[in-house]
Amino acid sequence: MPLEPLLPLFHRLNREHFEGSLTQGHQPLVAVRWSDGRLRRTAGLYRRGVSVAPPLGREIVLSRPLLGSLPREATESTLCHEMIHAWVDLVLKSNESHGPNFLARMQAINAVQDRFEVSVRHRFPVPQQPPRWIAVCPRCGRRTPYRRRVKQAACRQCCNQHHGGRWHASCLLVYEPAPEER
Ligand SMILES: [Zn+2]
Ligand SMILES: [Zn+2]
Fold first, then answer.
1. What angle separates helix 6-17 from helix 72-90, to the nearest 10 degrees?
2. Domains, the chain, ranges and CATH?
3. Reported pTM
4. Ligand nearest to the CA of 143
5. Using one digit for the tens of pLDDT, what is the confidence trace for 13-36?
6. Separation of CA 149 and ligand 2 centre (Å)
7. From the CA of 58, how far away is ligand 1's center (Å)?
């Protein structure tokens, strides 16, 4: 499924819910783009800085991996959420994240339409990072997935059972790379 172009959506939301305040003439005050393959932990972000989308210095980035496979409302609601951040920052010139101005605008937008719903937290499934290691206990053979290797970790069950709950080198976990998930 091709990704929806974001600018038309931006202009429409700007007209409908921000009184056109996020453009000057027809120029957006903030750059809007899809992420590359990264940005996997969050659906979208608004940021500013000298090196951000020059010469504007601010941008909204939506997550291609997270939103690309979800229904269109997810994109619209995420873009709208980030546009509220941009509006609080650029129009109100207020330094708040999900503060009173943000919440008031969010509720106003949710009250006047039911095409999508803006929430404070993006409520989309974030794919878990698959574990990279399997820790194997040489004593009982128990296999436990781990994100990262923990040095000197020993099998708790075996230490409890055979060593009175004290760490013992005979129960040191051995790490194997986890099988590739697909
Ligand atoms: Zn936010
Ligand atoms: Zn064990």
1. 60
2. 6-112 (3.30.2010), 133-177 (no CATH)
3. 0.69
4. 2
5. 999 999 999 999 999 999 999 998
6. 16
7. 15
Task: Tell me the per-residue pLDDT of 57-83, one tens digit each, with 9 for 90 and over.
Answer: 999 999 998 898 888 899 999 999 999
User: Under DSSP, is residue 79 helix (H, G, I), strand (E, B) or coil?
Assistant: helix
Q: Tell me: the pLDDT tens digits for 37-54? A: 788 888 999 999 989 999
If pLDDT is split at 50, 70 and 90, which confidence band does 125 have? low
Distance CA 36, CA 180 (A): 23
Residue type, position 51, single letter: S
Angle between the N-to-C axes of helices 100-112 and 72-90, in degrees from 0 to 180, rounded to the nearest 10: 140
Strand order in the sheet with 31-34: 31-34, 58-62, 44-48
Average per-residue pLDDT for the chain: 90
| 135 Cα: distance to centroid of ligand 2 (angstroms) | 10
Q: For strands 31-34 and 58-62, give the pairing.
A: parallel
